[in-house]
Amino acid sequence: MQTSQLHKFIIRLSFLGANFSGWQIQNNAPTIQGEIMKGLHYFLDRKSPLIVGAGRTDAGVHAINFFAHFEFYNQYLDTNNLLYNLNRFLPDNIVIHSIKLVSSDFHARFSAISRKYEYLVSTKKDPFLINRAFYFYKELDLELMNLASNMLLGHKNCSSFSKSNYDNSICNIQSAYWFKSKNMLIFSIESNRFLYNMVRCIVGTLIDVGLKKINLEDFTNIIESNNRSNAGFSVPAYGLYLSDVKYPKKYIL
Predict the structure, then answer these.
(1) How many domains does the chain have?
(2) 58 in active site
(3) Can you give the three-state secondary structure of 30-69, one letter per residue?
(4) In this structure, how many other beta carbons lie within 10 angstroms of the beta carbon of residue 97?
(5) DSSP bridge pairs for 121
(6) What's the Rg (C-alpha) of the chain?
(7) Per-residue model confidence as pLDDT tens digits over 153-193
(8) Can you list the positions of beta strands (E) in 88-192?
(9) For residues 166 and 198, what is the distance between their CA atoms, to the nearest angstrom?
(10) Active-site entry in 58, 105, 218, 244
(11) Do 64 and 134 reside in the same domain of the chain?
């Protein structure tokens, strides 16, 4: 039965961002949000409210575990059928894993308590990793990079690692570390929030540490300077993955 009351549904999805101009819908460029909205309008209602994502990924950035919510008038929506139809409709580089009814107070962006990103650095040239990992051939000191990563933990002003100015640049970074898997160096970072371009700039600055262009004291000074021009280069977007978003346990996702 359809009523005037809107009911909220959560979508869990993954996407390869190489051919998209980020998550947020744009007039003249393909985006993840735009593609999903086309599908919802086609299968549900042209007047469906805008789908809301867990964050605004930049152009070229990928997501392994991304969440979004939308509202619809019918709480008895056949989510299995919609899941099947959307996956047939959407391009191959976007996949919907699940669609579930969720409580009305849930918000894909503002209910999140943390987000985790991973950045992939390939130490070996690999044609199958084009637009999926950053190839870097020089040897890096992973131990030094992890010592520097540990300095990021806690409530930190992260304005040194962002292109944009914020009234509040404090981020609560809960974990930050590097690990190696075969020919891949992977940087993992989890925080309650991220500033624009923050992860890519942190990775570039940590690479400078690994190359011994800067030492640990320099890295501390960069953090405390609150000045983007003191930090290192921003690595390419295509090596960055939003790997997870965490929500309070009361939301069964």
Answers:
(1) 2
(2) yes
(3) CCHHHHHHHHHHHHCCCCCCCCEECCCCCCCCEEEEEEEE
(4) 12
(5) 134, 185
(6) 20
(7) 998 899 999 987 788 899 999 999 999 999 999 999 999 99
(8) 94-102, 114-122, 134-135, 154-157, 170-181, 184-191
(9) 12
(10) 58
(11) no
